[in-house]
Amino acid sequence: MFEASQLVFYYAVSPVHMGAGSAIGAIDSPIQREVHTQHPMFAGSGLKGALRHHFNRAWPRSEGDDRKANSLINRIFGPDTGASDFAGALSLSDAQLVALPVRSLKGGFAYVTSPLALARLKRLALQAGLACDWTVPAVTENKALVCGTGLLTQRPGTTANAAADQLVLEAFEFSASPDANLQNASKWIATNALPTSASAFFAEKFKTDLVLLHDTDFAHFARHAMVVEPHVRIDDDSGTAAVSGLFYVENLPPETLMVGLAQASIERFKKHSRTIDSAALLSAPEVLAKVFAGQGDALPGIGGKLLQIGGDASTGRGLVLVQIATSS
Asked: What percent helix, strand, coil does the chain show, rounded to 5?
């Protein structure tokens, strides 16, 4: 069905709330999570809806009727109404977790990942036809692999000239050592996920401050290192907090890195709607090019730009930087 694929990175610039729609426990509005790993995720349907909304604003309206969206949007994403007429040419997979920002004793925070997260990233990259000249390192529980020694401290009670081999993340201590395979992976990810000059600081930090934890240790942070914000509903008459008005909203923290696939097929059309003077059908590579690279100033693409996804947009939530991987 799909004839072209691209690897897409989503880098959170602000807290992101892609809601799960139901709550179990103390958090009233949790984020979306995979059922088997409990890692945060972005549903492909939500990403596609956010992209469509973005292009409805970014691309000029239909010629002759400025109330209608650009017809190219329907050609790429599918019809606004009459969904059975024809299928959209673009498909977005769910976005999976690559690295989480976790508070560190040194360096402010570290980008934390796991063998599972890196292996899934490499699988997607290979499916998109990218070359990955790095391997996924192995690590044991209560140990950590790092790209350099900048995040490490000396253990208490050691001599002044002892090597720094302790990593402190939040309230947890790990024995850590540098790893060349992880260095290679961090450089590849930073080059593809954060290639622009505006992201240069974070790209360099990613290369030096990526940490690999065992999947069991990483699972704790994937479950509990989220931003949980209390909200209060205000009574319009009294101007004070409404009765039972306190609720808690979970957000993915800024500086989180996610990844997914964008796939395309040749443009579809409604049966018997094609005529001799119809516009040529977009090929699968052309569909992806329209969405991510755009077509001049009139039809800007989303690659390298901010996309708003999820809820609480009016409070600055949901801003992610969209970037296409280009390694070959």
From this structure: 25, 30, 45
